[in-house]
Specification:
With about 350 residues, the chain is α/β, with parallel strands linked by helices. The chain contains eleven helices and 13 strands. Helix 6 links the parallel strand 5 and strand 6. The longest helix has 21 residues.
C-alpha cells in the first residue's frame, strides 16, 4: 500500500522522458509503485534534456524504460499485452499550440493515432484505469470563467486543442462501449524545474540571461492560470487511484460534458488564480535580478486571451487543490535552471 492507502500497482507512463511524465514517474516510484516508462525521445526540443531526465529515473528501483513510438500500433499493443498494467497514464503527445499551425500531421500521428493505440491496448488487456492528458486549450472560444468541465467545449482554435478534444471523445466511446474507466485531465499552463524549452518561462529565462529581447504576446495582457508541476503531479497521482464510475444522475436530456452514464470523468488541474503575463515576467525579473528587453506583440493565431480553472470537482473527488504561487514556483525553476546550466 502507498501512503494514500492505494494498493501498489504496475503503471505505464507514456511520455516518461517528458516534463510531466518525468516528474510523475518519480512521484509514483517514491510511493512504491512499479513504473514502466515509454517514450520515443523525439527531437521536438533538446534531446539532451530528455536524456538527463531519463537518467535520473532509470537509476530508481522499480523503473524500467521502453523506447518506442505511440503511433507504432504493434509495439504499443504488444507492450500492454505483455506487461498487464493495472493503470495507464498517457502523457505522450505532440505538444504546442503554435507548432500545430505549421506541423499539423505530427498531431494526427501522435495525438490521434497514438491515442487509439493506447485505447485498444487498454480495452483488450483489462487495464483498470486509463488516465490521459487533455489540455486547457480545449476551451478555445469559451469566455465564461472560470472554465468548468461542465461547460461545452466545441469551439477549439488550434489543431492541438482539437486533437485533445478528440481524445476526450474517443475515451468516452471506449468507456461507453467497453466499460473502460477513463479520466481526462485538462492541464493549465504547467511550469517548473525540468520544464520544456519551448515554454514561455524557459524561453524568457534564457533570453534575459543572454541579454536578448523576449516576445511578449497580447502586449503582456494575456492571462494564464500558471500551474506548478508538483501540483499537476499531485493531482494526477491521486486521480490514478480514484477510478471513475457512471454518474447516476447523468441525464441525456441535459447532458453533462464532465461526467457520463459510462465510467468516464474529466477534471481541470489548474491554480484557479490567473496571472497577467506581464506580472509573470516581473516575478521572473525579480528572481533573476535582471530586467528583460520586451518586444510587445499582438495575440497570436491559436492563442486565447485568458484561462482560469474551476477545480471544485478535483477538490471534491480527490481532496486536492493546486496552490503554489508563481513567486515560489518561478524561484524554484530559476534555482534548477542555474544549477542545470551552470549559469
Amino acid at each position: 500500500m502507498d501512503r494514500f492507502g492505494a494498493k501498489t500497482q504496475k503503471i505505464l507512463v507514456t511520455g516518461a522522458a517528458g516534463f510531466i511524465g518525468f516528474h510523475l514517474s518519480r512521484k509514483l516510484l517514491a510511493l512504491g509503485h512499479e513504473v514502466v516508462g515509454f517514450d520515443n525521445i523525439n527531437d521536438y526540443y533538446d534531446i539532451n534534456l530528455k536524456l538527463s531526465r531519463l537518467q535520473l529515473i532509470e537509476s530508481t528501483p522499480g523503473f524500467r524504460f521502453v523506447r518506442g513510438d505511440l503511433a507504432d500500433r504493434e509495439a504499443v499493443l504488444a507492450l500492454v499485452k505483455a506487461e498487464r498494467f493495472d493503470s495507464v497514464v498517457n502523457l505522450a503527445a505532440q505538444a504546442g499550440v503554435r507548432y500545430s499551425i505549421t506541423n499539423p500531421y505530427a498531431y494526427i500521428d501522435s495525438n490521434i493515432q497514438g491515442f487509439i493505440n493506447i485505447l485498444e491496448g487498454c480495452r483488450h488487456n483489462e487495464v483498470k484505469h486509463l488516465v490521459y492528458a487533455s489540455s486547457s486549450s480545449v476551451y478555445g472560444g469559451n469566455t465564461l470563467m472560470p472554465f468548468s468541465v461542465h461547460h461545452n467545449v466545441d469551439h477549439p482554435v488550434s489543431l492541438y486543442a482539437a486533437t485533445k478534444k478528440a481524445n476526450e471523445l474517443m475515451a468516452h466511446t471506449y468507456s461507453s462501449l467497453y466499460g473502460l474507466p477513463t479520466t481526462g485531465l485538462r492541464f493549465f499552463t504547467v511550469y517548473g524545474p525540468w520544464g520544456r524549452p519551448d515554454m514561455a518561462l524557459f524561453l524568457f529565462t534564457r533570453a534575459i540571461l543572454e541579454g536578448k529581447p523576449i516576445d511578449v504576446f497580447n502586449n503582456g495582457k494575456m492571462q494564464r492560470d500558471f500551474t506548478y508541476v508538483d501540483d499537476i503531479v499531485e493531482g494526477i497521482s491521486r486521480v490514478i487511484f480514484s477510478v471513475p464510475g457512471p454518474n447516476p444522475s447523468w441525464d441525456g436530456n441535459c447532458p453533462d460534458p464532465g461526467t457520463s452514464f459510462a465510467p468516464y470523468r474529466i477534471y481541470n488541474i489548474g491554480n484557479n488564480s490567473p496571472v497577467e503575463l506581464i506580472r509573470f515576467i516581473e516575478v521572473l525579473e525579480d528572481c533573476l535580478g535582471k530586467q528583460a528587453e520586451k518586444n510587445f506583440l499582438p495575440l497570436q493565431p491559436g492563442d486565447v486571451p485568458a484561462t482560469c480553472a474551476d477545480v471544485d470537482d478535483l477538490a471534491k473527488d480527490v481532496g486536492f487543490r493546486p496552490s503554489t504561487s508563481i513567486e515560489d514556483g518561478i524561484s524554484r525553476f530559476i534555482d534548477w535552471y542555474r544549477s542545470y546550466y551552470h549559469c
